[in-house]
Amino acid sequence: MHRATIRFYAELNDFLAPEQRARALEHRFYLPAPVKDVIEGFGVPHTEVDLILVNGESVDFRHPVQPGDRVSVYPMFESLDIKPVLRVRPAPLREPRFVLDGHLGRLARYLRMLGFDAEYRPKAEDAELAAVSSGEQRILLTRDRGLLKRSAVTHGYCVRETAPRQQLAEVVRRFDLAGAAKPFTRCIPCNGRLVEADREAARNRLPEGLGSRHERFHACEDCGRLYWEGSHHRRMKLLLEAVLREAGGGAA
After folding, report:
1. Could you read off the pLDDT of 76-118 as tens digits, one per residue?
2. For residue range 169-179, what is the model confidence (pLDDT) as tens digits?
């Protein structure tokens, strides 16, 4: 049996057992396998990896791991310039759009509150989610590592936090979304875009007395749901402001 060593750096250690973190690990094998398969064999999804070095040389996911190889695996670099070497992560999408699995419904609503296109399919199978991510150029958000290991998924992220508010701050930081946020421009239940609605027509749709207290209304282009700046809007605005501050952005 052959042996190679592999080490994961920074937040990639999140996917390892405590005793495996921040140390060189032994990979045993009979036949060489692509380094992508070796990495995912340790539980690290390929979508989390940005750079792979084998014996000090950068390689892509197809590179076969040979006996005696020393493999170093790195996550996304936020500030370090690594242009001279081969990044395995695909280029960022021009517009941040998301698809979320069935366990992240509240996060999907929060992302829509910030104005991001967040498709949520609670009953979708893994194959469908992977196909939507690939076909519609959406970043797949999930806590399911196995889903991110699907070869069809090129842009994805494993959400670490469990509480929805912290999940939102995590995703805003990870994808640097604070500057691109346009709060209250999408329908929270259906993800459609909001447009300004005719004031009188909107007032006629509301219970007597409620519409007269507001001057400006928006409606969803897709489902027709009405929005106005009531007490619920103010509470959501405060929540978003707090999240953006926590994530390093400005006020909503």
Report:
1. 764 445 455 666 766 666 689 999 999 999 999 999 999 999 9
2. 999 999 989 88
Tell me whether residue 91 is exposed, middle or buried, using C-beta atoms within 10 angstroms of its C-beta: 0 to 12, 13 to 18, 19 or more.
exposed
C-beta separation of 129 from 99 below 8 A: yes
Query: Is the Cβ–Cβ distance between 10 and 49 less than 8 Å?
Result: no
Torsion angle of alpha carbons 158, 164, 170, 173, nearest 10°? 120
At 125-141, the pLDDT tens digits run: 999 999 999 999 999 99
Strand order in the sheet with 118-120: 118-120, 98-100, 139-142, 156-158
Amino acid at 195: V
Kindly tell me the burial class for residue 237, based on how many C-beta atoms sit within 10 Å of its own C-beta (0-12, 13-18, 19 or more): middle
Could you tell me where the beta strands, DSSP code E, fall in 85-244? 98-100, 118-120, 139-142, 156-158, 194-196, 218-220, 226-227
